[in-house]
Design a protein that fits this description.
Elements lengths: L23 E12 L2 E12 L3 E5 L6 H9 L6 E6 L2 E2 L5 H7 L1 E3 L3 E3 L6 H9 L6 H15 L14 H13 L5 E5 L7 H16 L3 E5 L3 H7 L2 E6 L2 E6 L1 H5 L2 H6 L14 E3 L11 H4 L2
Parallel strand pairs: 3-9, 3-10, 6-8, 7-12, 8-9
Antiparallel strand pairs: 1-2, 1-4, 4-5, 10-11
Length: 288
């Protein structure tokens, strides 16, 4: 992770619920999405400030990944707007959204197994430059940040699930984003791997880069998030500090009889051949 970012450094302890005062970096306002008459999202609004981690939770099918897709350009919202800084990105393609500074992961990590670890990250770095030298510098920097620099020459297909997740994070960071949208990037990790990923998130936040995070591990998401947004049946029912959300009666009611879970929203996949979120992955089948 580069340390020469113009973004301001913020507190690293999410348990203090840092205010992260200032204008929002990402703003989704009254976002509605319908599929053939089915309302997947209804008037959802949230914001992410610079150098802030916002957790996004909700029961299965609540609309979390659909919201990610509307924000990142995979789908155009039926109604509502999305802004990244001063720029409206509501109807921009996923590739143009990525160039504007928003990068995302998908639920299923799928690196290009026939390529090396370094070459996979180069895919992300090439979004800003086609020159091999500068792109390789960016890629190696991000591999070092996630702890995979010594495996740069190895085949990506030989990596463990945990290492593939860190490779995905490195590839996403290589696009040099101002905000990351991470869709269950910790799914399938061991407790040790989860803690390592959380530490990386905190370092990313320290650099001034923002994170919007879908995650099923409630202990993890509550420990790392500055604020938490909750979706239920396509509607936002809470958006506050982790402590306030955990005690919110509407949130508790939404989870009665089921797990507090962000898992299984859809079958969206990450294809290392694109860095701009152009994979739709059938979002409305499982997360409408």
């Amino acid at each position: 992770m580069s340390t020469d970012t113009p973004n301001e450094t913020t507190d690293t302890d999410a348990s203090t619920t840092t205010d992260h005062e200032g204008e929002a970096l990402l703003r989704a306002t009254d976002v509605t999405k319908t599929f053939d008459g089915l309302v997947a999202l209804r008037d959802v609004s949230l914001d992410v400030r610079r150098g802030e981690i916002v957790g996004l939770i909700g029961p299965n099918g609540a609309g979390k990944t659909t919201l990610f897709n509307c924000i990142s350009g995979v789908f155009a919202p039926t109604e509502g707007t999305v802004h990244l800084g001063d720029e409206e990105i509501t109807n921009k393609s996923a590739h143009r959204v990525a160039r504007s500074g928003l990068s995302r992961t998908f639920q299923i990590t799928r690196p290009l197994e026939e390529l090396s670890v370094l070459e996979n990250v180069l895919v992300g770095a090439h979004i800003h430059t086609r020159r091999r030298g500068p792109a390789e510098d960016i890629a190696r920097e991000q591999l070092s940040f996630v702890g995979l620099d010594e495996r740069a020459a190895e085949s990506a297909g030989d990596l463990t699930v945990g290492d593939q997740k860190r490779l995905e994070l490195a590839r996403t960071l290589a696009t040099e984003p101002s905000i990351l949208l991470l869709d269950e990037i910790m799914a399938g990790l061991t407790p040790t791997e989860t803690q390592r990923m959380l530490d990386l998130f905190r370092e990313i936040r320290e650099s001034g880069t923002s994170i919007l995070l879908i995650e099923h591990d409630m202990e993890a998401i509550m420990s790392v998030s500055d604020r938490v947004a909750v979706l239920d049946n396509g509607e936002a029912i809470a958006f506050d500090s982790p402590e306030a959300v955990a005690s919110d009666e509407r949130v508790i009611e939404a989870y009665i009889g089921g797990d507090v879970d962000a898992d299984g929203d859809d079958g969206a996949t990450s294809d290392a051949t694109t860095t701009d979120g152009e994979q739709a992955g059938g979002d409305h089948d499982g997360d409408a």
